[in-house]
Fold each of these.
Amino acid sequence: MLIYLPIAEVSLNLFVLLALGLGVGFLSGLFGVGGGFLMTPILMFMGVPPAVAVSTQINQIVASSMSGAIAHFRRRSLDIKMGLILIAGGAVGSVAGVQIFALLQATGQIDLVIALCYVGFLGVIGSLMLYESIGAIVRRSRNTAPRRPARRKRTVIDALPFKTRFAVSGLYMSVIPPLALGFLVGVMAALMGVGGGFIAVPAMIYLLRMPTNVVIGTSLFQILFVTALTTVLHAAQNQTVDIVLAAILIVGGVVGAQIGARYVAKVRAE
Amino acid sequence: MTARLCLIAMLAAGLAGAGAPARAQAETPAPEPQIAAALTEDVVEIRSNFAGAEMVLYGAAVGLTEGDDIAVVIRGPVRDLRVMRRQRVLGVWVNADPVVFEEVAGYYAVASTRPRAEFATFSALRRNRIGMEHVRLSAPESERIETRFGVAGVVVSDIGAAIVDYRAALVRNKARDALYVEAPGGVEILEAGLFRARVVLPPATPTGVYDADVYLFRDGLPIAVRRTSLEVVKGGTERAIYDLAHERPVAYGLLSVLFAVFAGWLAAFVMRRT
């Protein structure tokens, strides 16, 4: 059954869109990722204009991060102070990203930049994951625990000014790295239609050295606010948010995420 | 003087008589060719279940004789279009050589009784923009007026011969979404000058005013033309959503976010219950 999307100005099959939301929602429930980096390119392949795909997908992430963030809020497994600093950086990044987006759209290079961003980011993340997995396999075969440095080295991050205490994370560090990380994720949200969890989560663990148990919650908390802001900015500046498409993806996505979250209990970690 | 005036008046009366539809005698001169045409629908509403539309353009050609042909051209709302060429730069395909074509038809359908080349001259087709290879493409930004070989006011385009590639690319892209369609043989002549043609609007149909031109061709040239029009509008909810998004964009954005937040909250709520 075809459904006409008033902003995208194309007719797409309703059931295909619901199944897509369900499938990507399932994966995001399973792996704890937002799924934006899967959904946005698929929407473009289906004929949704890139600008509409990006800003509509961002709207969908608001819903998925909301349901995730609530769960973490209840368990208190998030660092609100860190989250607020990330949001501050993210807000600036989002505003900048939406401006860059409008500029690229005017010069006709938006499709190219979006495609290159995807190739670049997914290529880097994929290679890092491959490296990590091979390391894990090698360790398992040798039956040794991963080596840990005896004492962590001082890095550039420790030398930065404006230090503050993050009680929940048990950190005393400069606000500049989280602001910069927030900014990067905000730009990515506006340009690529992704929540940015796949960049923010590893960065929080390895660069900011936050405890793993608060990382996911903090990331979701930040994503919720940054994507909400990005949605409003895209709607206001580019009029590219398709509420009908977003609603279909949200319905499929939240149901899929629940199924994924249940399935998670049955599969082995790592 | 009076006699001559009288004669002119009689001639005028005779001409007017020839244009009238009722003529039984064989000796009267062939009637002035005329076309009447209409569409089965003149407003198409796009609603949520819009999957394209189909209608019939029908009409009558007065004075249609053996060997005459009919061509129907439907042109959709015009929009400026940027066409670029993919070019390899440092191993990556980038969009280069942008050309802005002004007022390109968003929809273009042409149907005729026979393949066009069999009944119409190239110049007649070009002049009336009938056929894919004659789709109007104008790029004023790339044009300038020069004096060439002593002739003043020659319009020279920077695109040059590449215009053929740009046109082919544009037509190919539009044809992929069934926005540009050709149907040689799509016009059916029934009897006594009655004809009909099927008009198919694809799901990607742009909104706006469409012009349907019907041409009657004889000896390679159009001898009669008739224009009728059609409007494609967004209907009901789709229109309301579109208008809201463009007239109150901030409110629309907030509404989208509120809906998403509510849906996410509902999902978390339901999950905790079960």
Amino acid sequence: MPKLLKNLPSEIKKNKMKTGIFLGLSAYWGVILVGTFLQVN
Amino acid sequence: MEVFLPIAEVSVNILAIFSLSGIVGILSGLFGVGGGFLMTPFLIFLGVPPTYAVANEANNILATSVSGSTTHYLKNTLDYKMGLMIVVGGVFGTLLGILTFTYFKGIGKIDIVISLAYMYILAIIGTAMLVEGLGEIDKARKKILTKKKLHVHYWIHGLPLRMRFQKSKLYESAFTPIIIGLIVGFIAAIMGIGGAFILVPAMIYIIGMPTRLIPGTSLFVTIFVSAIVTVLHAFNYGSIDLILVFMLVTGSIIGVQCGQKIGESIDSTELKTLLAVLLLAVGIAIAYDAFFADHAVNEIIKIDVKNLNPLSQFIRKLSDEVPILYGLFSIVFAVSLGVAAAFIRKFLSALRKKYFKKAA
């Protein structure tokens, strides 16, 4: 696990597109879930 | 060019409705999905209240599915027995969905429920399609070939009442298609969609039907589900607007036929990724509209029936006085347009073959 964390920046550099999509989708789902939570309350 | 919808009581732009239904129709033809999960949000953005958008889109889906399944009937690529089993579940699911719709309408929360349902469905499908599409592109670049399992067994395959489906060459529990139909019918009634995006993967991965029978059988099921949704919406809420239905049906039938033609000549892997991005964009637009946009309180405008044109007056009178007959008429209207489109396509195709033969 620590080895993976150490290599993470280089992995991110290698797969810029995949990282971008992952972050984009995370933000997307974050907005939806937070919005729903606020709406329900 | 604005036109007043006598039942929905809003004015819409004819060109916007025609072009949007045409574009969604092209996407439907290209990807083999009904397109309801795109068209209903578009109608809501154009100012049609969600309750009306759901009901009228269901009527539109009826026309396009009749058109598509007639083509498959002529090609003999339809499993009626499996289709009818799914319809049995679909009928109960639709009734359950209408009861849920009535409950949320009663407490005044139906608009937000529809918006949330769309947002989540679009987000889930968009994410799944994007991940799958990018994976396929990645594999194609790296030239990786993967072997897929023919059929995976889930708990659903262990259910009793097994029967033989000769056309699909399957021996399966009758409960499998019934449960799938139940889920599809429930979602269709609340969201005004055909449910093909759930039905098609379920037919491939859970039922394990042969691929060539899937589009026809899926469209066959959609006919019954959307017909029930249309009648129940017309009878319960009087929300079917024949003028809107006519515009939607015309645009989408032309679009579907064009989309099917385009799909024959292009590779759809990269387009699938683009569609996924489009779905996610529509999902976030609904999220913005539902969570952050300021909603102006709509004034309740009492419309004087005498000020409407004779056609609008006739439609309103029919909807108010004989809702079941009106619902049945809207179904016959959609079915006729759908069948006519399938036969026109067959006629044009025969004409083209004849012309090309002569030219050769």
